[in-house]
Amino acid sequence: MRRPVPGADQSDSGVLRRGRTSVDTVEGLATVPWETVASGGTGETPVGRREKPLDPAAGPVQRFAYALRKLRDEAGGPTYRDMARAVTYSAPTLSAAAAGERLPSLSVLLAYVTACGGDPHEWERRWAEALAEEADDRAPQDGDSPYPGLARFEADDRYAFHGRDELVAELLDLSGRRRILAVIGASGSGKSSLLRAGLIPALRASGEGLAAIRILTPGDRPARTHGDLFVPWATDGNGNASRRGNGSGESGGGGRRTGGREKAGDTLLVVDQFEEVFSLCHDPAERAAFLDQLLAARDPDSRLRVILAVRADFYGRCAEHGPLAEALSDANLLVGPMPPDRLREAIVRPAATARLVVERALTARIVADVGGEPGGLPLMAHALREVWRRRSGKTLTEAAYDAIGGVRGAVAHTAEEVHGTLTPAEVAAARALLLRMVSPGDGTSDTRRPVDRAELAADAATERVLERLVRARLLTVDGTVVDLAHEALIDGWPRLKSWIDEDRERLRLHRRLTESANAWAELTRDPGALYRGTRLTAARESFTDPSCLSLLERDFLTASIESYERGVRAATPAHPHGRAGGAAVRRRRGGPVRLAAERYERPAARRGRGPPDRRRGGAVAHVRPEYRDAAVRRGLADRGSSRDQGGRAGGRGAA
User: Fold this and answer.
1) Is there a contact between 114 and 86 (Cβ–Cβ < 8 Å)?
2) Are strands 304-311 and 234-235 parallel, antiparallel or unpaired?
3) pLDDT (0 to 100) of residue 574
4) Predicted pLDDT at 577
5) Are 241 and 252 in contact (CB under 8 A)?
6) Which segments of 4-119 does DSSP mark as H helices, in order?
7) How does pLDDT run across 442-498, given as a tens digit for each residue?
8) What is the pLDDT at residue 20?
9) What is the Cα–Cα distance from 182 to 311, expressed in whole angstroms?
10) Amino acid 444: pLDDT
């Protein structure tokens, strides 16, 4: 039979506390406090009541609880009341730790172990192993999670998007009064989710009469890539609305009928990650053309409206373009950190929608860890997703939160889990893959860089790594474009951050090489777009391993080298006096070649760059180090001479 026991209750977190609950009782046994009826290891309590038997083979939770009871027995079987006097937790809480229903939180475990004289470090390790084993046993599907992790909320996630109601209302009002506006916030403040899961559903529900809503991210060539999206939703001669353009992320917003014909309303362009105009687009003309396209929305006859989502550290760059700065001067909305009450909504309500329970202690911990952090939302969502994966029944527990390292450690925990499964070849592939998706900052933070699948290596190791990172939701794939799930991964995973710092200068060279190769391809491989001079020298020195380059980048660099070598050969005309005359020419030219090499080696080594190309009177006055050997083989210096002999031969030729 079950009777209420005064003096204990079970909170939302599942931890027994003072109040009332019900426990199994033995006929004729008086109702007593929980720590009396439930205390004791595998032996008798003071009133003869045993704890519920445990089966170590039943799973990691019962096996861990069994080990805790054994530790308590080895310590002499102290009662839970005696243990509670030695630590800061109550007897019911310590009893629940060894009940075998769920794993205790790390802090409760350490208190239990300390009270029994155990080794805290050893038990923390065993606890982490048990928690990981429990998560593997459940293996839930990620698609069922009410939290998006590092990924943004989309329009279809509006029922799981909470905590921004006031901001959505303010943005809805501002968008009705301004044709161009900007949403500004730190990376991770939730700008993308606010627009996609907050504003867009609100616009659809408000009956604003928009003809269409189009979402785009600029990329490195925004004007050429998205030109069609600036053609508004039009009506044909029969009054039927039709889309011109092939942009992604478009949805009909409904039209309105006037005089028997349907008149299309404005088309809304949502430009997410607007900072890419500055971080990825390095062509001033391309950037100016795109900004001009955006600013056309100032004219009501354009039937366009524009909302920009821009990272706060790039907002100052908008002032570089006068008309854009003027348009945004009184049309911007700042997105700051969520207040504590809204954070609680964002934590608890998605779980409630999925019929899950969040421990109160867990909610309080996350609010304390994230509160006041302007970029903490994706880290919070990722931590909650990982806690959900390790949930106990339908409860999201503080123990799982401790196991993943909290908000700050969750991203690194997930990434290191994936990294630990990789072979050495796959680790190298992962490094190359991830670094290609980063654009190193120049006076600003590092940013993510979406890449096309064609840019990635086609080997089996890269494909396996890509699949694992996508499955862990650290990367996203949209059509042929692969991207970091969020820039929080850059700062949140120390290993990736160290890779970036180690290769920072080389990454900058690589980004420039990629841009130049793409421009060369767009110009139908025009020889005039190839690398020359110091840019070619730097690329040859930095990319000695061609496996780190895409096929297009390899073709571009190879064509640049071949073009340079053809120029060297063309600068060495055949001598009419035959072989002997050719030898004389080589001797005469040995001096300038040697002098140019020495001039490059000494001053250029100090400056970190080489001198520009110069040709005088058909003779090459300078040969760069990486091509000097090839030049010698082709007759610019004696083939078998040492450096000193070459210098003396050059001296005699010059004399």
Assistant:
1) yes
2) unpaired
3) 61
4) 53
5) yes
6) 34-37, 60-74, 80-86, 91-97, 106-115
7) 777 888 899 988 888 878 889 899 989 988 888 888 778 889 988 888 988 999 999
8) 30
9) 10
10) 78
Task: Report yes or no on 612 lying in a domain.
Answer: yes
Question: Which tokens go with 251?
Answer: 């949805």
pLDDT at 130: 85
Per DSSP (E only), the strands in 390-523 are 395-396, 438-439, 447-448, 451-452, 475-478, 481-484
Out of 351, 380, 404, pick the residue that ends a domain.
Answer: 404
Measured CA to CA, the distance from residue 538 to residue 506 in angstroms comes to 10
CA distances, 192 to each of 196, 210, 486, 493, 553 (Å): 6, 20, 11, 22, 32
- Spatial distance between the Cα atoms of 108 and 114, rounded to a whole number of angstroms: 10
What residues in the chain have per-residue pLDDT under 70?
A: 1-50, 135-143, 234-264, 574-655
Measured CA to CA, the distance from residue 115 to residue 584 in angstroms comes to 94
Q: Are residues 272 and 326 in the same domain?
A: yes
In angstroms, the CA 531 to CA 223 distance is 25
586 with 605, same domain: the answer is yes
CATH number for the domain spanning 324: value is: 3.40.50
Beta bridge partners of 271: 216, 308
Q: Which two tokens mark 288?
A: 């100016």
Domain membership flag for residue 152:
no
What is the per-residue pLDDT for 2?
Answer: 38
CA-to-CA separations, 191 to 154, 183, 198, 270, 310, in angstroms, rounded: 12, 7, 10, 11, 8
Q: Which residues face 307 on adjacent strands?
A: 181, 270
- What does residue 130 show for φ and ψ, rounded to 5 degrees? -65, -40
pLDDT of the residue at 201: 92
Question: What Rg, from alpha-carbon coordinates, does the chain have?
Answer: 34
Q: Do 464 and 387 belong to one domain?
A: no
Backbone angles phi, psi at 356, to 5 degrees: -115, 160
pLDDT at position 435, please?
93
Contact 627, 567 (CB under 8 A): no
Answer whether residue 248 is part of any domain.
yes
- Amino acid identity, residue 650? G
Q: Do residues 258 and 293 both lie within one domain?
A: yes
Nearest alpha carbon to residue 134 among 391, 411, 414? 391
Q: Please give the tally of structural domains in the chain.
A: 5
Give the per-residue SS3 of 296-356: HHHCHHHCEEEEEEEEHHHHHHHHHCHHHHHHHCCCEEEECCCCHHHHHHHHHHHHHHCCC
Indicate whether 176 and 28 sit together in one domain.
no
Domain ranges, residue 254: 164-335
Looking at the domain assignment, is residue 551 inside a domain? no
Give the Cα separation of 586 and 619 in Å (integer).
10
CATH number for the domain including 58?
1.10.260.40
Distance between the two ends of the chain, CA-based, in angstroms?
Answer: 116
E strands, 545-632, where?
Answer: 615-616, 619-620
Say how far apart CA 295 and CA 304 lie, in whole Å. Answer: 10
In this structure, are 398 and 433 located in the same domain? no
Looking at the structure, do residues 176 and 294 belong to the same domain, yes or no? yes
- The Cα–Cα gap between 23 and 12 comes to 17
Rounded-to-integer distance, Cα 215 and Cα 272, Å: 7
The residue behind tokens 């019962």 is 62
Q: In Å, what is the CA distance from 440 to each residue of 184, 282, 500, 509, 595?
A: 21, 13, 8, 10, 38
Kindly report the CATH number assigned to the domain that includes residue 374. Answer: 1.10.8
Q: Are residues 317 and 359 in the same domain?
A: no
Bridge partners, residue 308, by sequence: 182, 271
pLDDT confidence of residue 60: 85
